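We treat protein structure as text, and this decision shapes the records that our systems exchange. The tokens are whole numbers drawn from a learned vocabulary of local backbone shapes. Below, we set out a record of this kind in full and without editing:
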Amino acid sequence: MENEYDAIRDKKAMLWYNSLAMAGLATLSVLSEVKDLYDEHGQLDMAIVHDKTGVSIKTLAGITAMTPQGLRNNPKSERVQRNGRRFVRILAELTRLLGARKDAMIWLREPHPELESHTPLELMAKGRFEPVEILVRRLGTGAPA
């Protein structure tokens, strides 16, 4: 019985890891930063993202290209996974670079001159991830961001 339990647990862990690897989060240091945002089946749960980050449902709905009501009703739907994981990848990298999720969330909420004085969250809520990803990559290389 114990071996069967271990096999199930290992399979769930592998599914979770694979879902993050597909989102570009294959390094263990980054994985640990966002592990709590996924359910036991490896699905990103936007209700958990909302609870753990304080990002409003309205903003998360924009990020995932859903309505706020649709996101509330289906926080783990397949439809939210792509852009939701893209947001989580940015959050994970910022958390790793800045040392704490709280600091990453401050960075995401602050207007940035290279984003035409918009916040990274505002741009992502409009589906514009690339400028934010570029800034995060530059931050990771030590370039001014």
About this structure: Confidence is low (pLDDT under 50) at residues 25-29. The two ends are 53 Å apart (CA to CA).
